[in-house]
Specification:
single chain, 365 residues, alpha+beta, Conserved hypothetical protein from pyrococcus furiosus pfu- 392566-001, ParB domain, Conserved hypothetical protein from pyrococcus furiosus pfu- 392566-001, domain 2, 2 domains, 9-stranded mixed sheet, 6-stranded antiparallel sheet, 11 helices, 32% helix, elongated
């Protein structure tokens, strides 16, 4: 993996009164914040260590720049298709800001030598700054500027990390690759390297990505369950519980909870890796509800699994005639196999934690 240090732009934390409000607005307001001296250019090029403390767990990785060819050649592999309109939105944002305010999140198989090096930096070096978003979430940054340390980590990634997998940032990768292409054959390419955070797979967790579908007056709840039983075993529940395993979903319909399991005949007709999301798209969205374009249909709302089940239920109850589905989280080995085979998952299949925040480390182009 070809990585290099970069001269980042970092927040002036003494000017930040409310971290949550400030960093949540950086995506749109970065140029104004930069003019107002809320950000400063680092004195030297560096590789950054990031430690995210969330819900009592520590997640440690690095923030650096990866060569754009690592993404184009799919040595850093994708598992989702991108949408051209969203690529254009990303390009517009990059041009407006002249910067990328959030690193692409990439994971790779754990390398003990790299993990040991990260822990040594954390133990022996004073951190540059930390941001406390809540009592349960703190982000800490260490700046590594020593030439020997930088050379060492770059060599380890080149030798020991032959491939990686995008966890978050497919559209940022695609839009930067398009912009880099415009500079082919020129001496300087501002988009040749893309700010990327690398974490070992053991440091990341995949959550479910749940769905709420507004069926309006198109089908009654009773009729829907009748149609659903063609493909699934449906069991009424006295109260909510999480899905127990892959191929089981929990459904919320008519203010009642149901366990929904795919029938063996559905699972036996596999041509590739089966996921609850693609089974749901084929048999529920398409066959029962006649929803053809799941990317564009406004009747579908996606709820990330880190949100409480109470929040999920509230969102369902806002609509008179809705169906909610809580899915079992995607197994990371399924994701890796899909990416290795250069196949893609349905949109909104995974929610990774921890997630990087906008504005903690910025790459100016």
């Amino acid at each position: 993996m070809l990585i290099r240090p970069f001269r980042a732009v970092l927040p002036n934390m003494q000017y930040v009164a409310s971290p949550k409000a400030f960093f949540s607005s950086v995506r749109e307001k970065y140029p104004d914040y930069k003019k107002g001296n809320f950000f400063r250019k680092a004195a030297k090029e560096a590789v950054y260590i990031v430690q995210i403390v969330r819900e009592g767990e520590k997640h440690e990785g690095i923030i650096t720049c990866a060569h754009i060819d690592e993404f184009i050649s799919q040595r850093i592999k994708k598992h989702e298709n991108t949408i051209s309109t969203k690529e254009q939105q990303q390009i517009d944002l990059i041009l407006k800001r002249g910067a990328g305010v959030k690193p692409v999140l990439v994971f790779h198989k754990e390398v003990k030598k790299i993990s040991k090096w990260i822990k040594q930096i954390i133990s022996n070096k004073k951190k540059s700054f930390e941001v406390k978003f809540s009592e349960k979430e703190i982000h800490r940054i260490w700046s590594v500027t020593d030439a020997e340390d930088i050379e060492h980590i770059c060599k380890m990634y080149k030798k020991l990390v032959p491939e990686g997998y995008i966890a978050d940032g497919h559209h940022r990768c695609a839009s930067t690759a398009l912009m880099s292409k415009n500079y082919e054959g020129t001496e300087e390419n501002p988009y040749e390297y893309l700010m990327t955070s690398f974490f070992p797979s053991s440091q990341l967790k995949i959550y479910d990505f749940n769905r709420i579908i507004n069926i309006m007056d198109e089908i009654t709840p009773v009729r829907f369950i009748v149609e659903l039983t063609k493909y699934c075993e449906v069991e009424h529940l006295e109260k909510y519980r999480s899905p127990a395993e892959k191929f089981e979903m929990i459904m919320y319909l008519g203010k009642e909870w149901y366990a929904v399991k795919w029938k063996k005949k559905v699972l036996s007709s596999r041509s590739n890796i089966l996921l609850d999301a693609n089974l749901m798209n084929k048999y529920i969205m398409d066959s029962i509800l006649k929803i053809e374009d799941i990317r564009a249909d406004t009747r579908i709302k996606y709820i990330e699994g880190v949100k409480t089940i109470s929040s999920f239920k509230t969102n369902c109850n806002k609509l008179e005639n809705s169906i909610g589905f809580v899915l079992f989280p995607v197994d990371i080995n399924d994701l890796i196999e899909i990416a290795d085979k250069r196949k893609v998952m349905p949109p909104k299949s995974t929610w990774f934690e921890p997630r990087m925040k906008n504005g903690l480390v910025v790459q100016e182009f």
